[in-house]
Write a structure and sequence with these properties.
By secondary structure, the protein is an alpha/beta fold. The chain has two domains: 188 residues, Vaccinia Virus protein VP39 (Rossmann fold); 51 residues, Nucleic acid-binding proteins (OB fold (Dihydrolipoamide Acetyltransferase, E2P), Beta Barrel). The protein is built from six helices and twelve strands. The chain has a seven-stranded mixed β-sheet with strand order 3-2-1-4-5-7-6, sandwiched between helices. Helix 2 runs parallel beside helix 3. The N and C termini lie far apart (67 Å).
Length: 255
């Protein structure tokens, strides 16, 4: 295609503020990021293309809040609010909390550094921004929430992904079709935010307080549910945590 590319032209025809809107559409289709009624925070939201996509996905019962140092022109969607500021500044974080409340269902970030043209510098800066977004996600996400961040491929990516994997059920890399062929960008998509007081491999002594529908014993660790097979109510057992989900964990008895 001559002149502007396909996604640029489509964005103009379909009323999106940026071609990047199609990246989020494709990420949502691939990873099921949004449901009707969800609350979403979009970091680096200007000019608003991702806000438009998220607002369409969560519908009138949802909430979408965009944050950027640049001014974002108001959108037609009544469910969209914006916060102007730098997420590294405490006052911006406080304003965001006041706007979204205690927890949200998804945090997405399309933030990118000012490009220098030097690969190693641009990569390192993109990872730094992604880590900032990750910190925001850990502060805001409800249990089971999802996080998406853009990063340029390179040697520091593995450490970032490893750190994210400790906080989510799983993390995967996705390169949307809407990304330019010449770009090294990809998106880390993290599903199922974990806020459990236990981690896989932990050994601890628990008391079985209830019985589950499948007959497993149920223990509570700081209010968090742990399923223990072959355990009776009132029994005190030593267990090893085998698998952790956002709202419960599975354990196995230790002989």
């Amino acid at each position: 295609m001559t002149g502007k590319d396909e996604y640029y032209n489509r964005s103009k025809q379909e009323g999106y503020r940026a071609r990047s809107a199609y990246k989020l559409k494709q990420l949502d289709a691939e990873a099921n990021l949004f449901d009707a009624g969800d609350s979403v925070v979009d970091l680096g939201a200007a000019p608003g293309g991702w806000l438009q996509v998220a607002a369409e996905a969560v519908g009138e019962s949802g909430t979408v809040v965009g944050v950027d140092r640049q001014r974002i022109r108001p959108l037609d969607a009544a469910t969209v609010e914006t916060v102007r500021g730098d997420m590294t500044e405490e006052r911006t974080v406080d304003r965001l909390h006041e706007t979204v409340g205690d927890a949200v269902d998804a945090v997405v970030s399309d933030m990118a550094p000012n490009m220098t043209g030097e690969y190693s510098v641009d990569h390192a800066r993109s990872v730094h921004l992604a880590r900032q977004a990750f910190d925001v996600a850990r502060d805001l996400l409800a249990p089971g929430g999802d996080f998406v961040t853009k990063v340029f491929d390179g040697p520091d990516l593995a450490d970032l992904r490893s750190d994210m994997e400790e906080s989510f059920e799983y993390v995967r890399s996705i390169r949307p079709d809407a990304s330019r062929d010449s770009s090294s960008e990809l998106y880390l998509v993290a599903k199922g935010y974990l806020t459990a007081p236990v981690a896989a491999g932990d050994e601890l002594v628990v008391e079985i307080s209830d019985e589950g529908r499948e007959g497993d014993g149920i223990a509570r660790v700081d209010g968090f549910t742990v399923f223990v097979p072959d355990a009776d109510v009132g029994e005190e057992v030593t267990v090893r945590i085998a698998d952790v989900k956002p709202r419960f964990a599975f354990a196995e008895r230790v002989s």
